[in-house]
Every structure is written in C-alpha cells, then in structure tokens.
Design goal:
By secondary structure, this protein is of the alpha/beta class. Strands 3-4-5-2-1-6-11-8-12-7 form a 10-stranded mixed beta sheet, with helices on both faces. The protein is globular.
Length: 500
C-alpha cells in the first residue's frame, strides 16, 4: 500500500507540474494578446463600424425558456445596441411561465408572416410576431425543443449574413456588436468570434445596461468573478492567440450565418451546444478545405447573472462538464489527427487530459495525498511541494490574471475591489477548487447514466429591479420590411441595483 500511495503521489506531482506549465504558458500568451490589444485599441475604429451603413447586418438570436424575470430588460438592452442594421429574434421555446406574455405586453407584439431562410429542422413554430413599437424585434413562439433547437429556429428565420447567439439573461454593452463585427470586416476568413463574459451580480443596471460595476455580496458569486476572469483572460485569450479557440460562450457569440447553416446548425442532442458548434465548424471547414478563423476578443462586452447558491452552481458546472465530455466523445476522430492541425494535435488532447479527465486525476491525487499524510508516508518536503504546486501556482495564475485586468480594462474600480479579488485568489485555491474538482468528477457519473437534465437556476432578475418601460404607441398599417431602417426608441427608467 505504501508503494502504491508513493507512486500515486509522484504521478500527481508530475501531473500538477505539467498542468501548471500549461496554464502558465496560456497566461503568458494571454498577457501578450492583451498587450497587443491595448496598443492597437486606439487605431481600431469601432465607432465607424457602429455607424456605417456598409456594416454587415446582424441578427441577434435570443432563446428564451421561462425567462419572465429578465426577458424584457434583456431585449431592451439588445435593441439599444449601437449598430446600424440590426434585428433581434427572440425565440420563446415553449415557456411555461409568463415569458411570452411579458414580451407581448412590453413590446406590443402583433402577428406577422415570416418566411424561413434555411431548411434546418426544428420543433413546430406556432407563430411569428413583430413589435408594433420597434420593427427590429421579431418573436418566434414555438414548441419546446431545448436551447439548441431554439437557436436553430432563430437561424431559420434570420435574414442577415451574421448571426449572434445571446442568452436571455445576458446584458450587452452598447458597443458590443461593433467590436466583434470589426473582426469579421477586417478578416474575411473569420467564421466565429466571442468575447469576455462578466458577472453582473452586484452591478448597477439601468434600462438593461450596466452603468456601474460592483462586486457581489455573497461568497460564491465573488469567487465566480475571479473564476470568470481567469478562464477568459488566463485561458481563452491564449488559445485564441495560437489559433486554437475551441469554446465560444453561449452567452454571447457572433457567427457567419452561411458557415453555421453549412455545418448543420446547433446540435440539439448535446447540452454543450455552444462549444460543440465551434468544434464542428473547425471540422467542417477543414474537411472542405475552407479557411476557418475562430477568435476570442479580449474586451469586456457581455454580462450575465451567475448562480448565487451552491445547489444551482453544482447543477451548472455538472452540465458544463457533461457538455465537454459529449463534445470530445462526438469528435474523438479529431484527437491526434494531423488533418486538423494544431486543434487536433494540441488543443483537443489538452482538453481531454486536463479538462475532461483532470478532475478525476485531481480528486484521486487529493485522496491519496491526504491518506499519505494521515499514515505518515508523505514527508515534509513532499507536503510543501504539493501545496506549492496545488495552491501557490494557482494563486500566481490568478494574480497574473488580475494584472491583465488592471492593465487593460480596470472594470473593478477602487482598492477595495482589488483587495477583495486578491483575497479571493487565495480562498479559491483552498476549498473551492477542490470542491469544483469533485463536482466535475461527478459529472462523469451523470454522463454514464445518461443524465440530460439542464438544472434550473433561480435568478434575481432584471425586470423586478426596473419598472416596466412605457413605450410609445405606433399604428401598424402594413407588413414590416426587415430591411427598412428604423429610428431608435427612447426609453426612460430609474436607476436600480442588482445585488448578488
């Protein structure tokens, strides 16, 4: 038993060294990408993209299932985006609450015929509606089929060359679209782009917009603020710099519509439809000899509400891990396949060994190391090495991430916020990280027994924190032309705070 424990401990130390080197490399690449972004930011004319009539039209697809608390404010934020040619397609995916009624009341929906533009199969669409207040808003009412099916329904009815997938509980900065569209206009080989997702808990929200950034009150949302920063600034930027982006968050992603249709749209059979689509785009484009640039944009442009209870957080992370496992299993033929370049030879093996199998290795290592300490097998030197690799290096990565945040964005103002984030970077590595490893390990059991549950997340919501907006009445005389320009609608609401 002693020999077995010592072998497991050595293997765990080697694993931690390799993992830390990999994460350290990604963090350094992320730092270079952020530095490059900061230097080039003054010469990127996002204002021109947001005002030019030559900017490519965009359809924002918002799948909504039981989102009555946030849907009105979210749609208001979408319609307030600074972009010249825009339509917002809200897909009510058979909601069992008042989601559709809230939309109909707030935006004065009226039935309007709309012809599908692609042949992707979806659940039955019961009706199509447009707003009598703002012609850019289209609402599809359909039978429930899941998020991927709702996105495909929006894709069927979208008429623009670019489509943007957005969660119904997401708030976007007004200039969000122009920043991502710039990537498509500057590089024609771009087929998908994503950006940083930030935590809205604790922020001040006015008229569906984040006007003041703040830290949440609860410990779990605070830990997720740091976790999101490290995942995006310390991970995805590095992968993007190497041309190996595998994940674009379902909260906000911009895609070439023709490329998505050609690849088959979002897959309703997986619960990680956002990441699976990105990997399928890589595969489909390379199989057909087409260019495929999928990139991650470092500017903060998207805000989402994160779980505030342990139960909802466990459901979310279990679902994310199952989605990753399904994606890798479905595209296992790409792993170590030279045909798919660096994505197949480097990125996918990394996600297999460190993201999918990593939690199992960590939990096994923690148990073996704890047992070794209890039996007096582990020496003092071994204990120090383990703690340095498992905790100390994790803190260093978080610290580098915070430096990147302060260098480029400074969205959490004041020494108080910075001090809290530094404190969280220590707490996260002592307890929280181990708990998350256990939760993600359990996802393997959920996957093996065929669990396809989504897991509900209770929300504080935006609608409850903002009064219903009284919109001007417009008479709908004739069918609406989606290509016709529509003046923006002015709204006026009071300021309220979303507390985490």
């Amino acid at each position: 038993m002693r020999n077995a424990l010592e072998l497991v401990n050595v293997m765990m130390l080697v694993y931690l060294v390799v993992l830390d080197v990999a994460y350290g490399t990604l963090a350094l690449l992320g730092w270079q990408a952020v530095e490059s972004f900061v230097r080039r930011r003054p010469v990127r004319d996002y204002e021109l993209v947001s005002s030019s009539p030559l900017s490519p039209p965009v359809s924002v697809i918002v799948p909504a299932y039981d989102e009555q608390e946030t849907i009105v404010s979210s749609v208001q934020a979408m319609l307030a985006l600074h972009y010249p040619s825009l339509e917002v397609i809200v897909v009510n995916d058979g909601s069992s609450d008042m989601t559709f009624d809230r939309l109909r009341e707030a935006f004065r929906l009226v039935p309007a015929a709309r012809v599908p533009r692609s042949a992707i199969d979806t659940e039955h669409v019961r009706g199509t509606y447009v707003s009598a207040v703002d012609e850019r808003l289209v609402v599809l009412d359909k039978e429930n089929g899941g998020k991927a099916d709702a996105l495909n329904a929006g894709l069927r009815y979208a008429w623009t060359p670019l489509v943007c997938s957005v969660d119904a509980d997401t708030l976007l900065d007004p200039g969000a679209l122009s920043r991502l569209v710039w990537e498509f206009t500057s590089r024609p080989d771009t087929v998908a782009a994503g950006g940083i997702v930030r935590v809205v808990n604790g922020c001040t929200v006015v008229d569906g917009r984040v006007v003041k950034v703040g830290m949440p009150k609860g410990l779990l949302p605070n830990l997720q603020v740091l976790e999101y920063l490290r995942a995006f600034l310390g991970g995805r930027i590095g992968w993007s710099r190497m041309g190996m982006t595998l994940i674009i968050s379902g909260a906000f992603g911009l895609f070439d519509r023709a490329a998505v249709v050609a690849a088959g749209g979002w897959d309703p059979r997986t619960i990680g439809e956002d990441a699976e689509l990105v990997l399928r785009l890589h595969r489909h484009r390379r199989d057909n000899g087409l260019d495929c640039r999928i990139m991650f944009f470092p500017d903060p442009i998207c805000w989402t509400e994160v779980p505030s209870t342990a139960r909802s957080l466990v459901h979310q992370r279990d679902r994310w891990q199952r989605g990753l496992i399904q994606m890798l299993l479905r595209h296992r033929g790409m792993i170590f396949n030279r045909r798919y370049g660096a994505v197949g030879m480097l990125a996918l093996p990394f996600f297999v060994f460190f993201e999918a199998l990593g939690p199992l290795v960590e939990v096994t290592g923690y148990l073996a190391f704890g047992l070794s300490c209890a039996l007096g097998i582990a020496s003092g030197q071994q204990i120090l090495r383990f703690l340095a690799l498992a905790i100390g290096f994790g803190f260093c990565i978080s610290y580098i991430t915070l430096l990147m945040e302060e260098r480029a964005f400074q969205r959490y103002p004041g020494w108080g916020s910075l001090g809290r984030l530094l404190t969280l970077s220590v707490l996260e590595n002592v307890g929280y990280r181990q708990w998350m490893a256990l939760v993600r390990s359990r996802a393997w059991w959920s996957q093996l027994r065929g669990d396809r549950s989504w897991g509900a997340m209770p929300r504080a919501g935006f609608r409850a924190l903002s009064p219903t907006v009284v919109l001007p009445r417009l008479e709908l005389v004739e069918p609406l032309d989606p290509l016709a320009p529509v003046p923006p609608v002015a709204v006026d609401v009071e300021e309220h705070t979303l507390a985490g």
